[in-house]
Specification:
There is one protein chain. The chain is α+β, with helices and mostly antiparallel strands. About 30% of the residues lie in helices and about 20% in strands. Helix 1 runs antiparallel to helix 4. It is globular. The termini are far apart.
Length: about 180
Amino acid sequence: MQRLQKRYREEIRPALMEEFGYRNMMEVPRLQKIVVNVGVGEALDNAKALDHAVQDVTTITGQQPVVTRARKSIASFKLREGRAIGVKVTLRGERMWAFLDRLCNVALPRQRDFRGVPDALDGHGNFTLGLREQLMFTEVDYDSIDKIRGMEISIVTTARTDEEGRRLLESLGVPFRHRGW
């Protein structure tokens, strides 16, 4: 069992249960999944770019990503339906907890001038974070990357409201930006 998962079960879940007045332990918000998505628009011109993105995401998450394909043709972007345009990974269980731990305690603080992430949740307690580069993860070898790519990390919770989701994520160690910064 991961360190963060153990802390959730022993400390965070009882605290949230008391704070929000839940009667049943199953009502307490918990992490459902984490989705890591990398859009590779340049894959239309350069087929190797997709291979590098797959390699980077595999290194960061420890799981083989799925290649995402275009659903519609868009003439202005020279995009045809069915063309590969990105990669994504859905993390659950042990890998999800390990990834969140590394993200909050190692990767995010490595960003230059890091002051926290904006606390904009989607209305249902889910949080999406956009990162500008993959170099913030220590697993990525600086010499092996061909291009700096951004990624989108979505943390999906079972919380019903933003306030419940925000309290859960703060308790798990997500470094939210303090209001007024």
